[in-house]
Design brief:
alpha+beta
């Protein structure tokens, strides 16, 4: 109930904000039109005064007409003859007055802004072209600024809601993961007890060792789940040794149809690492490679140590990935398999990039030939 009220309140605030901004835009538009009409009236009065001066004789008092002409100090005007030759330019920058090209450019601009006013004259009609005053010009662009603010406001609101939803989902997943780890803990303790009983019963030691490895692996998985939602602790570790450890375990548990190859040009590279999460990363990449092969094939792990970076390449001979999916495969929920939630590679990306400040990407892939996924960690100076 409380959650629904919060949702309704949020939507009420959003809708109210949009309505207020829409009203402001509409009122600004009406104000703009009102000022344009007033300026049109002013220009018609100006043209009437100018026409009165032209038709006056020596005895006519034209002081009022002159006063009307002098009152226009803000609206730019250009007077032309019937043949479109420029006769007079007023209320423009000084450089325009002495530049014929600038005058013609100004005339073309004013023609686009407003309809001309016809001034009747004995020698032929004249035309008064006028532009918008600085106030009307500002009002013209004011709605654009408001629209930009509206779009920005909408973007911020949407980002906030999206972030809130993602945060809530992350908390839910973290809670479920921790609860799963807690539930797994009890049977794991029992399994370790049964392993000790098997030892006392003189069961084959190799069998016990293999079972023990799997139980400890389950403990590692439970430990991973318990760490979800918490900031991982990074300690200086040999990334090559940690990668090889995960590789050897996965190799021993994989199908005999898949050949494994491992190569490195260094024996020790120390970087800040969380061994549990790094193991999860390698496991996810190798398991995805196994799923991509579907039968006979090969997986090649190549570690390349350079001056600034350590590169871990996981190469498979699987079905390959289309180029348009190179980035999409790391998105939560994306999967080409019928089973699973599509979280493996997205978790891998988060572990590498958010927790270890590394980079993970698909280096290359060919349909029917295989894929190379690369992890890059920056070395400490």
């Amino acid at each position: 109930m409380f959650s629904k009220r919060r949702i309704y309140l949020r939507w009420f605030i959003i809708v109210s904000s949009f309505l207020i901004l829409t009203l402001i835009l509409w009122n600004t538009y009406l104000l703009f039109q009102t000022y344009k009409e007033e300026e049109r009236d002013k220009m018609e009065i100006w043209s009437s005064a100018y026409q009165g001066i032209n038709s006056a004789n020596d005895e006519t008092d034209i002081s009022f007409q002159l006063m009307v002409l002098s009152m226009n100090t803000t609206i730019p005007i250009v007077q032309t003859s019937e043949k479109d030759s420029i006769m007079n330019v007023s209320n423009v920058e000084d450089y325009v007055q002495g530049d014929n090209v600038a005058k013609k450019d100004l005339l073309e601009r004013l023609k686009a802004e407003n309809e001309p006013i016809v001034i009747e004259h004995p020698s032929g009609n004249q035309y008064l072209y006028y532009g918008n005053s600085s106030l009307v010009t500002k009002l013209k662009y004011y709605p654009l600024a408001l629209i930009a603010i509206l779009v920005l406001f909408g973007g911020v609101i949407l980002s906030y809601f999206k972030a809130s939803r993602v945060s809530a989902q992350n908390k839910l997943w973290a809670g479920m993961a921790k609860e799963t780890a807690h539930q797994i803990g009890t049977p794991l303790s029992s399994l370790l007890g049964w392993v000790e009983i098997m030892r006392l019963d003189n069961v084959d030691e190799q069998t016990i060792t293999e079972i023990e490895k799997d139980v400890y692996r389950l403990q590692t998985i439970a430990d991973r789940f318990s760490k979800i939602g918490s900031d991982p602790i990074l300690v200086p570790l040999n990334v090559i040794a940690e990668t090889e450890k995960s590789y050897e375990y996965l190799k021993s548990r994989a199908s005999k149809q898949i050949e494994f190859y491992y190569q490195t040009n260094a024996e020790e590279v120390i970087i800040p690492l969380n061994d549990v999460l790094h193991s999860w990363t390698i496991e996810n990449l190798v398991k995805n490679a196994i799923d991509a092969i579907k039968g006979k094939g090969a997986i090649f792990i190549n570690i390349k140590n350079t001056e600034k970076y350590i590169y871990i390449n996981v190469i498979d001979s699987g079905k390959g990935i289309p180029k348009n999916l190179f980035r999409k495969i790391f998105e939560p929920g994306f999967s080409t398999k019928k089973r699973g939630w599509g979280l493996g590679l997205s978790l891998t990306k988060r572990i590498v990039e958010e927790y270890h400040n590394g980079i993970i990407r698909v280096v290359k892939s060919e349909i029917g030939k295989g894929t190379t996924i690369q992890i890059a960690y920056k070395k400490q100076k």
